[in-house]
From TrEMBL, chain A:
Superkingdom of the organism of origin: Bacteria
Protein name per UniProt: ABC transporter permease
Topology relative to the membrane: Multi-pass membrane protein
Domain ABC transmembrane type-1: 18-201
Biological process annotations from GO: glycine betaine transport; transmembrane transport
TrEMBL record, chain B:
Record InterPro entries: ABC_transp_perm/SBD, MetI-like, MetI-like_sf
Signal peptide boundaries: none
Pfam family, one: BPD_transp_1
Membrane-spanning residues: 24-44, 64-88, 100-123, 181-207, 227-249
Source species, domain of life: Bacteria
Annotated organism of origin: Prauserella endophytica
ABC transmembrane type-1 domain sequence ranges: 64-246
Protein keywords: Membrane, Transmembrane, Transmembrane helix, Transport
Name this polypeptide is given: ABC transporter permease
Gene3D superfamilies in the record: MetI-like (1.10.3720.10)
Amino acid sequence: MNLLDYVADRWDRLSLQAWLHVSEVVQSTLIAAVIGVLIGVAVYRSPIGSAVATALASTILTIPSFALLGLLIPVFGLGALPTVIALVLYALLPITRNTIVGLAGVDPAVTDAAKGIGMSRTAVLTRVELRLAWPAILAGMRVSTQMLMGIAVIAAYAKGPGLGSEVFSGLTRAGSANATNQALAGTLGVVILALLLEGVYFLIARFTISRGIRG
Amino acid sequence: MSSTTEIQGFSTESGSRRADRVRLFAQPVAVVVIVGLVLVWAFTRSNDSIEAESIQAGVLLDKTWEHVLITLVVAAIVVGIGVPLGMVLTRSWARPVAPLFIAIANIGQAAPALGVLVLFFLWTEWDGLWAAALPIAFYSLLPVLRNTIVGIQSVDPALVDAGKGIGMSSSGVLFRIEVPLAVPLILAGLRTSLVLAVGTATLAFFVNGGGLGELVDTGYKLNRVSVLVVGAVLAVGLALLVDWVGALLEEYLGPKGLT
C-alpha cells in the first residue's frame, strides 16, 4: 500500500488526530501568549526584571522536551494535562522575550505624547504601547507555534493527543505492513499543518497590525 | 536603544547581555546543586532490586557518556558540514543554488525531530549511535548553516574591497576577512545547534542509540519514579551544561576586536 492509499484508507482517524494536534498547539500558544504578555508587561520597565524573566524562560527552553515530559508524568499523570503544561512552558520564551523587546522599543516620544493628551497609564499601555509591540508579540507566537508542532509529537509518549501517536505506533510496529506509511503520514502531517499555520499567521499579521506601522 | 533583539527562530539565547551574564554564572551552579541533590536522594533511599539495577554509578555514567557521545558526533557533523557548506554557498557562483539548500535545511528543522529519527530508522533499518546521530545532525544543521551564510553576507563590502585592493586572493579574502568577521554569528548558531542536539539525543533510545532518555523510559515502563527522575534530571543538567559550554565558546572564541 503506498502512502496516498494509506492516508485515504485511514482518513477518519488521521484527520481527527490532525485536528487534535493543531487544537492542542493553538490552545497552548494562546495560554502562553496571555501569560507571556502579562510577564512582559510586568517586567519591561525594570532591566533586572527583564533579565531574570528572559534568563528563566530561556533556561526552560534548554531543557530537553522528553526530560520535562518525563518529570511531569509522575506529578500530573498521562494525557492532555502534562502535554499542555509542557507546551505552554516551551512557548513562553519567544513570547515573553518578544513582548519585552517590543514594549522596550516603543519610542518614548510617542508615549509622552499619549500622556500629554491626557491618557491614563492603562490607556497608554493598551492603546499605544501594546499595539506598537503587537508585531513583535505576534512573531513570538509564530515561533512558539512552529516549535510546539514538533514538541507535541514527543508528547504522544505521555499519551497526549495528536499525530505523534502515529509516529509512535509506526515505530513500535516497525517491520510490519504500513509501519513506515504510518510514521510518514504522522510526520508529513505535522509539516503540512505547520505550513498551514504559518499561512494563518501571515493573514493575522495582515489584518491586525495597524496600518501605520505595517512594514 | 535596547540591547535585545526580536526572536525569529528557535534559539535559547535570552537576547539581553545582562541575562546572559546571569546565566553564565548561575547555570553551572544550579546544575551542580540540583543534580547533586537528586543523586544523593536516589542513592540514599532504599531502592528495590529493579531500581538498584538502574541507579548505580556504572549505568548512570554509561548512559551519560552515550548521550555526550551522540552530542559530540552531531556537533562534529554540524560544524564539518554546516560551516564549509555555508562558505561555499556565499561564493558568487553558488548564489543561485543557496536558497535551495536553505530550504532543505528549513524543512529539516520544521519536521518533528522524533518523526525524522523514526523515519530514518524505518528506512535504513540501522540502529545504534549512527542511526541516532545522522538524523539528529540533519535536524540541527540549520542554525550553523544559516548563521554562517548570514555572517559572511553581512560583512561590510568595503572591507572585502579593501582586502582585494591590497592584493588578497579570493580565498585570502574569505579566510582572513569574511570568516573571522562571521565567527560570532557562527558560534551563536553552534550554541543553538548544540542545544537542539543534546535535547534530541534524549530520543536516541527509541532507535537503540542509548542516552539518558533510556533511563526515563525504563522508569516509566517499570513504574519506578526514582529511575525516571534521575534520568530526566541528568538529561536536564547535561543540556544546561552543554548550553553553558556554548555560551563560553561564544564569549571567549569570538574575535576580541568585534565586541
